[in-house]
Amino acid sequence: DAGITQSPRHKVTETGTPVTLRCHQTENHRYMYWYRQDPGHGLRLIHYSYGVKDTDKGEVSDGYSVSRSKTEDFLLTLESATSSQTSVYFCAISETGTGVNYGYTFGSGTRLTVV
Amino acid sequence: AQKVTQAQTEISVVEKEDVTLDCVYETRDTTYYLFWYKQPPSGELVFLIRRNSFDEQNEISGRYSWNFQKSTSSFNFTITASQVVDSAVYFCALILNSGNTPLVFGKGTRLSVIA
After folding, report:
1. Using the 8-state DSSP alphabet, how is residue B101 labeled?
2. CB distance A99–B32 less than 8 Å?
3. Do B44 and A109 lie within an 8 Å CB cutoff?
4. Set of chain B residues whose Cβ sits within 8 Å of the Cβ of A108
5. Checking DSSP bridges between strand A110-114 and strand A10-13, what pairing results, if any?
6. Residues 6+ away with beta carbon under 8 Å from B46
7. 8 A C-beta contact, residue A44 and residue A99
8. Which DSSP letter does residue B54 get?
9. What pLDDT digit, counting tens, does each position of A39-68 carry?
């Protein structure tokens, strides 16, 4: 329902290959985030963006890069996929960088399996 | 740095029982927001509630209630008369009201309600 979509929804890839996940929003929100969800770890921040070409690292950024060349798209790239990057990846958007609004809107997630 | 702890990894209750999910947080900031999200088996993240650090009033929404106590840095969530549809993973999260510090999640509590 919300203006945020992730693609692909599911992907299986081989170890060592590059993989790019896409997050697309139609809300014109300034802030975008990538989290990964793993059992026993909850959601952990990978990278986030606070504007076009403005990005910063999160808690688990090693092995990942991001790009944001336009407001609506935030790309997450696994430079050389490893089995430890098998996870569910969530994108989120926010109008502000704080909780003043009602927090984040999350995408439906991308399930990535690295074999 | 901010931290959210959900000590209960998994809880199992019988339908119609009441259940409380614990959330303890750490921050040195005085202004922040706390959130609860629900993740049903389908995988999406559903916003449940946002609480401002200045508002310690408890909140009730149908069978759900939240107890915010700054003195103990806790924001607990109670489900009254649990139902099978309440089975999900529940996440507590915190975000500051300043800067661009992203939302920090606890590791989640998996609630199973047995008919």
Report:
1. P
2. yes
3. yes
4. 43-44
5. parallel
6. B37, B38, B39, B40
7. no
8. T
9. 889 999 999 999 999 999 999 999 999 999
